[in-house]
Amino acid sequence: MRWTENGPGGLVDARKQIELHIRAYFKRIQAPIGTKPKLIAWMEIS
Fold it and tell me: Are the CB atoms for 37 and 23 separated by under 8 Å?
């Protein structure tokens, strides 16, 4: 069982923000079109 401070809704919002950040990074480094982000690790820091 997973215990979190923010609950499942907070994790969904945080993941969306991370995915947007990764997409912006891909644009900055001019990654080839079609490159997909891959989230390898996830952890909550309190």
Answer: yes
Number of domains composing the chain? 1
Measured CA to CA, the distance from residue 39 to residue 37 in angstroms comes to: 7
Does residue 41 contact residue 22 with C-beta atoms inside 8 Å? no
Helices (H), ranges, 2-44: 7-28
Q: How far is CA 14 from CA 19, 31, 34, in A?
A: 9, 23, 24
Per residue in 1-41, pLDDT (tens digit) is: 556 666 667 778 888 888 899 889 999 999 898 888 777 77
**Residue numbers of the domain that contains 43:** 1-46
